[in-house]
Amino acid sequence: MSNILSIAQLGASVIREKSQKVLQINSQKTQDFIDDLLLTCKEAKGMGIAAPQVSNSERIFIMSSEPNERYPYAPKMEPTTIINPEIISHSENMKKDWEGCLSLPGLRARVPRYHEVHVRYYDRDAKMVEQKFEGFLARIFQHEYDHLEGIVFIDRVESTKDIVMEKEFQRLISE
Ligand code: ZN
Question: Distance, CA 102 to ligand 1 centroid (Å)?
Answer without folding.
Answer: 6
